[in-house]
Structures are given as C-alpha cells and as structure tokens.
Amino acid sequence: MLGRIFNGSGKPIDNGPPILPEAYLDISGSSINPSERTYPEEMIQTGISTIDVMNSIARGQKIPLFSAAGLPHNEIAAQICRQAGLVKRLEKTADLLEDEHSHAHLAEQFKLHTIERVYISLTCGVPSPSQGRIDVPIGRDSNNRIRMAAIPGSLSRGRARHAASRYKVVETLGGGGSALVEWRLETGRTHQIRAHAKYMGVPLLGDEVYGGTKSMALSLLQKRVSRSDQEEIIELVSRMDRPCLHAIVLGFEHPCTGEIIKFSCPPPPDLAEIVGLLRRSGREMVTTKLCVIFSLNLMPRAKWNNLSILVYKLIVSDIDSAVA
After folding, report:
1. Hey, what's the torsion of the CAs at 162, 167, 173, 176, to 10 degrees?
2. Containing H/E element for 148?
3. Residues 6+ apart with CB under 8 A from 181
4. What is residue 220's predicted lDDT score, i.e. its pLDDT?
C-alpha cells in the first residue's frame, strides 16, 4: 500500500514520491525539538504558585491548555507539564501534580465531584430566574463539531453526558443589558458554562462561538447605558476577543495532608474594566430615569396625557429590571 508525505501543517507535499511501509527517508533541514517551542512574550504572563507537591497556574488568556481545533499547538500542557501529571482542566486552566499519588488523589476528587469550582461571567442579558440549577446533558453539537451543546433528554440516546450547573446573578449591569453571574459546577463537562448559558438564552458576553456576539452585546447595552458611556462601551466590547468567563475559586482536599485548601484568582484587567464601566453606566442611567420620574410626579396627575403615563410606566419597568 502506497502512502504520501505531509508537511507540519498536515498538507500533502506536492509531487512527493509514493511511500512504501517501513521505508527509510533522508530529510534535509534543521531538526525540531518539540520541547523548545516558545510563545510570544505577551502570551507568557502566567504565574505559578507551589504548595508542596502541587503547582497552581494562572495562565495568560491567549495560552491554550491543550492542542485542539482552532488552537495553537504550543499548548501550556506541553510547555510546562512534561514531567507532571495533568489532573483536570477548568475551562483551559489546570492544576499540576508532581507525583503519582497526588495525581491519583486529585483525579478521584474530580471523579466524585467534591472539588469546589466557582466561576464568574458576564452574560448578554440577565438570567431569569435570578438563581437556579441547570441539569441538562451536554454533548457535541451536531452542526459544529468544535462546539458543545445542551441537549435535553439525550442521556437515554447516548448523545451526551450528564451536566449540572448552579448559577446566581450577583449583580445586574448596564441597565439590565448584562449581568455578573456566579457559577458553581457539579460536573466538569467541556464548555459546560458556555453551553448552559446559551441554553438559558443568555450567552456569555464575547462568546462568538456560543452566540454571545459583539453585535448582540451592543444591541442590548447601547440603549440601556448613558449616552456619555456609549462610545467607551462600543470600544471595550469591540476589543473583547474571548468569552467573559473567569475561574475565581478552586478548592479541594490536599492529597498529602487532608487539609481543605483554596486557590483564588482575581478577574483579569479586561474583565474588571468592562464590569466597572457597566456598573457605573447602569447607575447613571437609573439616576437619569429617577430624575424624570421625580419631574413627572411634580406635575398634577390631571395634566398627565397618555404619553406621560406611557413614559412613566416604561421608566419604572426599566428601573425595576436594572436594580433587580
């Protein structure tokens, strides 16, 4: 059986000779050592803290943990973890163990779902109800193999795996166009939060793959934020090149001491910046509407026309949703 030669990008070499099994080839060029792969400087903003046998890594936003479709091959797992056991990824974040016992102990905790994982996110729109539990299986999206999907009732057909997430709206932002949401995972499926948020109809802001597009975010925010902040909102949202999702707490039992330990990581600057702007702008908009209501209330009700009544009801409704 004849074969072909492919280059590093997976493309066949033009005019390459047919190859027989077990054939030896002479290849000219410099040898490549996979362990010598490097990242651009801006991608190596990752801090590593060590507690006994464990390393906790806060990776830069552009560093993937694994090679996958659409991701560079210079993954952090290959760069940093060649001698360590990789236990579990948390939306492209991982804890690394330096011996087999620790690796097995942590892996068992993930299997038993005793690991504490807390995330925060910004959503396009506000989840309703403001807190709850989503218990919907997650499997590969039949229309896009890179994307996962929440598929109700799919467990019996073997199309997906059990997935459960608890969420709570921490704060309504941008006049009701977005929300800061806390997530606690009972399971650890690939893209679990992103798929469940999309299923609820409130995809993560900046998540182009799962529907939280920039155009959707701007359509929700522009009409709800103060006019003075609209340009800055447009600029920040336009610069968003990733989902607004951050793993803020990871807690588990230490594999050697049995002590419950927690790692925490503050939100990165880009997420903190847009949260601050949406928080400020939403309050300014509510203040403006309250002033309008106050002015209307100074007017005798007998002089209110249908337009005044409509404006009053719309403003009160918007304020209720913005401060809920």
Report:
1. 70
2. strand 144-150
3. 120, 121, 122, 123, 127, 167, 168, 169, 170, 197
4. 92
Q: What distance in Å separates the CA atoms of residue 70 and residue 324, rounded to the nearest whole number?
A: 39
All residues at 6 or more sequence positions from 259 whose CB lies less than 8 Å from its CB, including other chains: 253
Q: Please spell the DSSP secondary structure of 246-272, one letter per residue.
A: EEEEEEEE-TTT--EEEEE-PPPHHHH
Q: Is the dihedral of CA 60, 65, 71, 73 positive or negative?
A: positive
* Other CB atoms within 10 Å distance of the CB of residue 303: 7
- 237 vs 25, 38, 231, 278, CA distance in Å? 52, 30, 10, 11
Domains with residue ranges and CATH for the chain: 42-112 (no CATH), 113-135+163-324 (3.30.2350)
pLDDT in tens, 119-133: 999 999 999 999 999
